[in-house]
Amino acid sequence: MFFRQRFQTQFILGMFLALIGASLIGIGDFKIGIKHLIGDGLGLLAAILAQVEQGLYSSSALRDRLKIMIEERKSYDPVSTKATLKKLAPERNLVIDTTYNSPEQIAKKVKHFLLN
Fold this sequence. Notes:
Layout: H1 9-25, H2 34-53, H3 59-74, H4 78-88, H5 103-115
Helix pairs in contact: 1-2, 1-5
């Protein structure tokens, strides 16, 4: 496929979950709502699946990493993160307000971004 590398189904599933999670997280991540919780959960699940699938972490290392992620999440600033990412690689950023767009609109925007 890409650079003559074949990807396992678990990896492709993890990437798919990461894209969905990232699109659901979007702007306004600190607002409370089921969309935000689902997006965060899918993003976290994708990251965990990718690392476990690659054999990068034991269960104790995974537990420790999750504790760190939870603590970091408490002080996450989406505004400065968005500004930094746009500055570093503006052509590789897609920002979607998930409080404004429906899941169908989000999927359409992600598809358009990936295909263009």
